[in-house]
Amino acid sequence: MWQRAAWMLLCAVGAGSAQLLFNATDVVKKTDCNKTVILPCCVTNLNQNNIGIMFVKWKRQGQLIFSFDGRTRKYFRHPSMPSAVLLSEKDLTKGVASLELKNAEAEVGNYSCEVTESNREGETRFELKKYAVDSCGEESTPPTPEEKCGSWFLLLERALIISLLFIIIILWLVQLSLIAFKYEIETRKKMGIIIAGVFATGAAIVGTVLFVQDGYTVHHQAGLGLIVVPAMVFIPLQYFMFGIVFDNLPQATFVLVGLQTLGYVIAVAGFVLCVPVCPPIHASVIIAGLAILAIAYLLSLSYVFIMGSRMKDHPRPGKAVEEPLNELRSSVIREKYTVVDTPWP
Length: 345
Hints:
Elements: H1 2-10, E1 27-30, E2 36-39, E3 54-60, E4 63-69, E5 74-77, E6 85-86, E7 99-102, E8 109-117, E9 120-130, H2 155-182, H3 187-211, H4 218-228, H5 234-245, H6 251-274, H7 283-310, H8 319-336
Parallel strand pairs: 1-9
Antiparallel strand pairs: 2-7, 3-4, 3-8, 4-5, 6-7, 8-9
Helix pairs in contact: 2-3, 2-5, 2-7, 3-4, 5-6, 6-7
């Protein structure tokens, strides 16, 4: 909204002349954080202020991409720019002939705006450039061809978020494999754990594909959501896996599950803070939350491994009591039904 107001204000000053004059600019900047781009074209010396005698023509690299005929109120849009529209049709009589379009459709290059009012006309030219965005939200100089343009998150931030997520998945797979190898798991429970894990992993893969690309769109927001939100699945999975190993859960297991929950809450809070802002200023919150979740999963894996090593002779702690009772019960049954052969007198 502030961009609209700024361009309209620039068009408000003017004086009479045989040729139409413009508030000219040499370079217009756009970044990946822009959802829309405004191409400025502001005439400063309209005389008749009558839309019926005005004609607007926009060109990119000399090719016509947009036109508006005030007499017939008809538009022409190039197929590559279906979202292009005058910034304000009603303010065209005030000299505002600026064009608004989606960021993805605004290709870098040289643009020109031609405005005609009856028998008077004029033209302004400028270059549209893409600028990188740093972590402080300030625009930097245009990147070289070898450099990547700024994205919603910095490359290091994206790498950390994705890496931490897949570390969590790997730790979960290792822990599941360890438990499945050493302990007996009911078929129904095993299938439930596997299905939930596959769901979370699939969401993580899709989210990574959407999130890793440059830009700031709904797809990138959805990608980050698919990375962070489904991570919740691994918390109940950890609880169920503890239940497989232990008959009565030790206090340490509740502490570990609580630590995972804390990490997840922090990560989701960071996601909520980052989604509406470009560039994000709370990316570190997401990273911290996922890091806590990964550390908690590493500790859980270590705890299961250590406790499992201490119980080589009995897979579950509860079986330390169950097995002697079963042996005693079997012995009683054998004595009750044993037939003793006695010799004839």
